[in-house]
Amino acid sequence: MIKQKTSSPSAHCFLFLSATLFLFVGCMSIPDQSKIQKFEDQKQKHQQLVSKLDNKDQDKQVKKPEKKKSQITMEVGEEEPVWANELPPECGETHYCGLAFKGSEESDDCLEKDVCRDSNETFSRNHLRKNIETKIRAQLTLYQYSQKDNEGESNYKQFEQEIRERGAAISLKNVLFRHFYVTPNKKLITLAMMEMPEEKKPEETPKKETTIDLPSLILVMAVDQDSEELNGEDLLEIVQLRLPELLSKDSFEMADNESIKLFGKAKISDLLSSFEELLKKKPDSVVFVASLKGDISANPGRLYPGITRMFLSFSAYKGKGKVIWKKTYVAKRLIVKKPEALSPSDRALNFRKTLGKGFNEIEKKGILKKFKLIF
Fold it and tell me: What confidence score (pLDDT) does residue 61 get?
């Protein structure tokens, strides 16, 4: 009798695992090659974008904006800079400025360039603030030299009120400091500069332009002082250039094409009699007189011991000497030398520069534009 063989439990287990593995492998999905390629492309684009951003950051770090000369905080040299004795041209025109000096060969105050830096910045700021206050205070008395009109009434009160309205305190902000250390003298020189704020003017409603018949002008220049210090011929060159230019901008025409007539100190009746023939030909013409005075005097302060003033008085006459308009403007220019130290040529040059500065300020402030309003 033959016995039937039975399979062992281990064999059954092996068969079951083999079947299960076959089914699992059969059910597994084959990876989509297009999705894998799309993922790789996105990964490559991301790496390129990150690389570009890194390059931009590096360029920003390497290419730094160059500072202007006026923003340089420290310079070193063996001789004092020019601006230590003569301020840059923007001082007084577009910027308020202040100076500070500290150190010497005899003292040990500034043995190194950075030792006195903080104190110099404080002193220069204080000097800058003082210059602002001086400018405002000077404007309050700017017109005290104005001439009186025929009725003996002074225009000073009107001008004083006008100045006080815009004499508000100015705060110090965005102050730039320029340092210069003179190595042999162990002295630090500091220049503080702050841009002048623009005056806020009220918005005016536009007016309809109307055609105005303006009279032609006969221009006259007079040196209204006994002193021979003012060279009329020298100053006439500036007046001849600037006065017709400013009046022409307001559509005024000159009565003749000849140069401006120059007179010394004279009565208005004498001036008008010189144009008697021309007034007969053009009776509607107006004689426009620019009268000049000037002086150089001492100014309180160590940095600017001198000051030059030019008094520009404008007046217009019609008919037999009737005054129809009058205005006086005082131009001022600080100088770094004492008045007694100036040579005659220095004084003449100061008068020319101050007169030119005065016409620039008159144009900027529109002083002569008010003349047109009387017609």
Answer: 52
